[in-house]
């Protein structure tokens, strides 16, 4: 008789229920797992055999068949070990109340001596259990911290096989197991917020660039910094996180899901509470940036944080062009012959570059590049890609007086307070965590109305700056953010003129 338990698998970042069917029958002793499993699933047979012996059970000398359903979707991961082990154990009569197990999604990799090791995607499985009306999840104790982020679903953390069997026999309860998990939590040794060691005040001058980054932080806009070597482009980008508000619970869960399924959580950092900052090197491949069929890319790992591309003129042209669609649509669809996966893209993208191969603007005496070399270099960041950058800022080297100026610049904390106030205005306006950059056409028409004088200014700008419809909308969104920072209900002429100032001059 086949016994069914339930686990889950992943297709990209999406999770679906997998029925684990275990059947023991007469015949030659053989152990088969079917259902399009990967190498880790195939190797689970040897882990399970050895675990049976080491925890005091005899592996059945019978024909053992395990089916992972649906059988037409490829599955991966070692987290099926525990459900297969329990299915075989139930078939041999060692688990009487099997109906209890059917109420839970079961995940866990088992070691040869019966320990249950951590797995990827525990928080994703917990969300799936809640959405599909399972009572809860059975997860390794090391994954308890991420799983407990989701309320309204029972979480049973177990450290070894014997603990799970004691739970099924009624010898221990959920509260005891959860208490043990909290005692093992090494991430809570120091719960104090570490003082930031970097600050916006570290960067001298560059007031226009700092203002642009403040607008970007308030409205979620993308920024393109172009300037001389040593003008502070990378320094400002690396300090951008210090002016962003803390992540709300919704964003913490979203980001932790991505890092969990990518296997990038640890015991010291089981939950992503700080906004990610991803800065891939220019030698990164297209798959590394946007993701592939089996992994998320850097642009997705920057979810709810910052995606920084330094020296974009050194990236491969095709690699940069692959970013155009996700920057516009807020997602990446990776299509293959038999399936497609979708990865979310929701971050603030900052790109930085020198204007020429030598590093300096063409009007600088230090620039010794020919016009042909400059054009070839600047073709790397094409017009369509620049069109997706909301704010364009030119940064020049500091003058002597600015370098020797000992007065401190504005601190990150002061800028952050204004950003938080502007975001609070947007939260009340949209009744959600939507930012100005995400306004649809209907919202744009409602909240970005401009008077006749401003309309005349925009008409002139369309001719002089050759604005596309996309860029026209972006300027209105930036104007809306500037007005929010100013605490104004309506967009005024000065807000619009400042927004236009952050466009590349033809």
Can you describe this structure?
The protein is α/β, with parallel strands linked by helices. The protein contains 22 helices and 16 strands. The protein has helices at residues 39-54, 81-91, 98-101, 122-131, 144-147, 161-168, 174-183, 207-219, 233-238, 249-261, 286-290, 298-301, 317-321, 324-329, 371-378, 383-387, 400-403, 412-430, 441-447, 452-465, 469-485, 493-501, and strands at 3-11, 14-25, 30-34, 63-69, 104-106, 109-110, 116-117, 136-140, 154-158, 223-227, 277-278, 306-309, 331-335, 340-344, 348-353, 391-395. The strands form five sheets. Strands 11-12-15-10-16 form a five-stranded parallel sheet. Helix 8 (207-219) runs parallel beside helix 18 and helix 20 packs parallel to helix 22. The chain is elongated. Mean pLDDT is 90; it is low at 188-195.
Can you give me a brief rundown of this structure?
This protein is of the alpha/beta class.
Give the topology.
Layout: E1 3-11, E2 14-25, E3 30-34, H1 39-54, E4 63-69, H2 81-91, H3 98-101, E5 104-106, E6 109-110, E7 116-117, H4 122-131, E8 136-140, H5 144-147, E9 154-158, H6 161-168, H7 174-183, H8 207-219, E10 223-227, H9 233-238, H10 249-261, E11 277-278, H11 286-290, H12 298-301, E12 306-309, H13 317-321, H14 324-329, E13 331-335, E14 340-344, E15 348-353, H15 371-378, H16 383-387, E16 391-395, H17 400-403, H18 412-430, H19 441-447, H20 452-465, H21 469-485, H22 493-501
Parallel strand pairs: 3-4, 5-8, 8-9, 10-15, 10-16, 11-12, 12-15
Antiparallel strand pairs: 1-2, 2-4, 6-7, 13-14
Helix pairs in contact: 8-18, 8-21, 20-22, 21-22
